[in-house]
Specification:
It contains eleven helices and twelve strands. The chain is of the alpha/beta class. The strands form two sheets. Strands 3-2-1-4-5-6 form a six-stranded parallel sheet, with helices on both faces. A six-stranded parallel sheet has the order 9-8-7-10-11-12. The longest helix is centred in the middle third of the chain and has 22 residues.
C-alpha cells in the first residue's frame, strides 16, 4: 500500500476523465493549490468506475469503498495522517438512493475520535433535497438535513457555493464559526487573454448538459432568435452531449454548429469566439453553475431564461441578462465585463489561496469540533 506525502487529502465522488462537475471543480482546485501555494492534493475517489490514468494528471488518487464505513475509515487512517482532509459534499453523490451517506459521517466521526489531532474541512456543494409531500425528496429531507448539520459541526472549517446555503449552515454552527461563500469554478479554464467583446465573432454559445440545452431551445428559442437579430448575432455554437431528439429546433436566421463533447481546452477555444452565453439552469442558483462560471470567466455576456434573484453578488442587467426581458443592445458589452470581474473575485487563484490559508489555520488550531454520535448505517 502506497503512502502519501504531506498535503491535503480531497474526498470526492468522482474525478476526470468521467464527466462530473464536482470532480472537475476539485481537480481544478488541486491544480491551483499546487500552482499558487505549492500544496499537493491527493484524492480518495468514491466512484467505483473511476480509475487513475497514468501520466494524465498531476495529483494521485485512490479508489475508495463507498458505502463501507469501516473500509473507508481504514483508508483515512492510512492516507490522511500527514495532512488535512477536504471533503466535497453532495449527499446524493455518496448515496444515490437516499442522499444521506450515513456511512461517510460514521467513518469521519470514528476517524476524528481515533485521531483528534487530524483536521477536516468541508465544502458543501449541496445540503439537502426538498419538494412537495407527494415527492420522495420531501420525506428524505429531514434526515439529509440532520446529516449535513452533523457534518458541519464535525468539521473544523466549512464553506459553500452560495449565500443561501451559508445562511442555513450558520444556524447549525457555533456563533464564532464563519461559513464563507465561494461560487464554483469554471470547469473549462480561465483564459488570461481574450479578444475584446466587439472584436469577437457574432456568435452565441449554448453549453451544458443535454436536457438543459434542449430546454433552452424549447422555452427560449423564439426569444433567442429575436435577441440575436437585435444584437446582430448570426451563429450558435452548441456544446455538449447530443440532444435527446438529435438536432436542436431550427432557429430562423441563425446557423447552428453542433460541436458535441469537447475536452475542456476545446470548449474554451469555442467560448472565446462568442459574445453571449445562453443557459437554462432551471431553478438552480447561478453561483453553483459551472456553465455560468465558464461564460463569466471567458468574458461572455450570460443570458438566462429564468428569473433569478439578485444574490451572491450577481445582479440582473449588470452581470446577466434575461432573455424574456433583455436590456438594450448597448448594455451587453458591459454585462460581459462585469460578469468577468465578478468571476475574478473568486477565481481558482483566489480560491486556492483561501483553501491554503484555511488548511494552515485549522492545522495549527487546538480547537476540537463537536462530534456527533455515529449514526447507524441504514443500508
Amino acid at each position: 500500500m502506497m503512502t502519501m506525502d504531506p498535503g491535503v487529502l480531497q474526498i470526492v465522488p468522482c474525478l476526470p476523465p468521467l464527466i462530473d462537475g464536482l470532480g472537475d471543480h476539485a481537480f481544478a482546485l488541486a491544480a491551483a493549490l499546487q500552482k499558487h501555494t505549492a500544496t499537493a492534493s491527493h484524492f480518495l475517489v468514491c466512484d467505483p468506475a473511476w480509475n487513475v490514468i497514468t501520466g494524465q494528471r498531476d495529483a494521485r488518487g485512490i479508489p475508495a469503498p463507498a458505502g463501507d464505513a469501516a473500509a473507508f475509515g481504514k483508508l483515512l487512517a492510512e492516507h490522511a495522517h500527514h495532512g488535512v482532509v477536504l471533503l466535497h459534499y453532495v449527499g446524493y453523490a455518496y448515496d444515490a438512493r437516499q442522499g444521506r451517506p450515513d456511512w461517510l459521517l460514521n467513518a469521519l466521526t470514528t476517524w476524528r475520535q481515533a485521531q483528534p489531532e487530524r483536521r477536516l474541512i468541508t465544502m458543501f456543494h449541496e445540503l439537502y433535497a426538498s419538494g412537495p409531500p407527494w415527492r420522495k425528496a420531501f420525506w428524505l429531507s429531514a434526515g439529509q438535513q440532520r446529516l449535513a448539520a452533523d457534518l458541519a459541526r464535525l468539521s473544523d472549517a466549512c464553506f459553500t457555493s452560495n449565500g443561501h446555503y451559508a445562511a442555513w449552515l450558520l444556524k447549525h454552527l457555533p456563533s464564532s464559526r464563519p461559513c464563507p461563500v465561494w461560487p464554483v469554478l469554471s470547469n473549462v479554464g480561465e483564459p488570461t487573454e481574450l479578444l475584446p467583446y466587439d472584436q469577437r465573432p457574432a456568435a452565441v454559445a449554448l453549453f451544458g448538459r443535454a436536457p438543459n440545452r434542449a430546454r433552452a431551445y424549447q422555452r427560449g428559442g423564439d426569444a433567442l432568435v429575436a435577441l440575436c437579430r437585435r444584437l446582430n448575432l448570426s451563429e450558435v455554437h452548441d456544446l455538449g452531449a447530443p440532444l435527446p431528439d438529435g438536432r436542436p429546433a431550427e432557429l430562423p436566421g441563425l446557423t447552428i454548429h453542433q460541436h458535441g463533447i469537447l475536452p475542456p481546452a476545446g470548449v474554451s477555444r469555442v467560448l472565446a469566439q462568442c459574445r453571449v452565453g445562453y443557459l437554462d439552469n432551471a431553478t438552480g442558483r447561478l453561483s453553483k453553475s459551472g456553465v455560468f462560471a465558464a461564460y463569466a470567466s471567458h468574458g461572455l455576456a450570460p443570458l438566462v431564461e429564468c428569473h433569478y434573484p439578485d444574490e451572491d453578488g450577481l445582479f440582473r442587467d449588470r452581470h446577466l441578462a434575461n432573455i424574456m426581458a433583455p436590456p438594450v443592445a448597448e448594455a451587453f458589452p458591459s454585462i460581459a465585463r462585469e460578469a468577468q470581474m465578478w468571476y475574478r473575485g473568486h477565481s481558482s487563484t483566489e480560491l486556492a489561496r483561501f483553501v491554503a490559508e484555511t488548511i494552515t489555520r485549522v492545522a495549527t488550531s487546538s480547537s476540537t469540533p463537536t462530534q456527533p454520535t455515529p449514526l447507524p448505517n441504514l443500508r
